[in-house]
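Blackboard transcription, Thursday session:
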Amino acid sequence: MTDRPSGPDQALAVAVRAEAGAIVASLARLVGDFDVAEEAVQDAVVEALRNWRAKGIPDRPGAWLQLAARRNALDRLRRQQRHLKVLERLREDVPGDELDDADERVALVFACCHPALPADARLPLTLRAVLGLTTAQIARAFLVSEATLAQRIVRAKRKIVDKGIALTVPAPEDRAARLDDVLTVTYLVYNEAYVSSSGTGDDRDLADDAIWLAGVLATAMPDEPETLGLLALLRLQHARRPARFGGDGVLVLLRDQDRSLWDRSAIGSADGLLERAAGLRRPGRFQLQAAIAACHASSPTWEATDWLQILTLYDLLLRHDRSAVVRLNRGVALGKVRGAEVALEYVDGLAPDLAGYHLFHAIRADLLHTLGRVDEAHEANRRALDLTSNAAERNLLLSRLR
Amino acid sequence: MKYVLMFTDNPELDARLAPGAGEETYKEIFAWFEDHDRAGHFAGSGAELQPVTTATTVRAGDDGERVVVDGPFAESKEVVGGFTIIDVPDLDAAIAMARTWPPLKHPGHSVEIRPIVEHGE
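(Written on the board underneath:)
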């Protein structure tokens, strides 16, 4: 969404995204307590929201946030009557002008996505600690109550402290396995924005946040091809965003999109990233997904798509990611290359894993329709409709049923 | 930071190991302890426990009385076989140590990592 109003809220969103993670990480190192640091930054964000609306945007938003966070950390420690040495350090250590600590942010992401944390806490914790979203914003994006979410975040933060999870980037030999967790969470941030149009309010666009974070990771670890792959994938998906919704707010499927609306410069930069990644000769699931997206992006029409190449890429992708959704998407390419009958048999084989997933039924409906089995197609569309609560997707399915 | 590493195994699966596999693993365990001792990772003594058949459990009964029963505290196929106390910089270091625990090459083994409560910090 490029037509957001500019103003204090947007300035805050940009400043918070750029600075919050680095401030949390450096403050945590200083006070030796991740929980105190994270709460202090969170409070600073909430203060900024009020203060900037009332008094305008400060000259140096990042420095404002850093100072406010420090003051809050000081207050918290004072209230707790401990860490006297730390209090001295906080008073002496005057904040510098600029925070340029990509490494600090990256270390913080690794901590928030640590496999020793519950899987359902990693994403919200990353949004809060690294990207500086407030609990209220995250709760709105996930459609859960603020209390539930706050509790999940508090528990996860306690685990970071109690388990002794370090705020450091893992050593190279451990990095590959841990990196996948980090990239997955980053991808989920984008996905959350992509499927939900609910948004966070307050001018936070999770899609921008995700792309920004993927960029930080790719810059910090340019020799890890999967970081480049993820950034390419997100840019490619984002490039199609202007074409995803029709004027009436109805979801437009890839095949029906007006490809002249796609962002060509974003697609070009993604292609460049993929080439660099390929040069490192370590394929992975994000690079392969990006390669599939790039294949679509370079095709002038849905009909002219190089389906054989896409099917080949899906076969490679399955070596890295055996998830049911990847197998389902392979079914679409299979239908184009070897016909709807072969594809339907393959897709039907996925029913045990995917019977509760609306797109499974939507893709079946499509294949049945191609085969002229109209009644069964109608029934499959109906099942798909029953299984989705997303308004845009419901509208699309309803239009098919009419 | 101090952690206890608790080594658990599944006696049923262990009984199915090839003859000689146990002795070989024991040698590797000794080497593992020597390596980490040299690296200064141990913060106290640990223990290898007698088989779970020797376990006795005292638990709280329904009326507050103490009930003594034969067997381990949890009805589970996996049982604690031993433990050791380590002092390493952070959880990742503890995980790295646990990863190299030699019996993990056999099915049913696991290592639980628990931070120790440190009073009066």
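Lecturer's comment: The CA atoms of residues 243 and 257 of chain A lie 6 Å apart.
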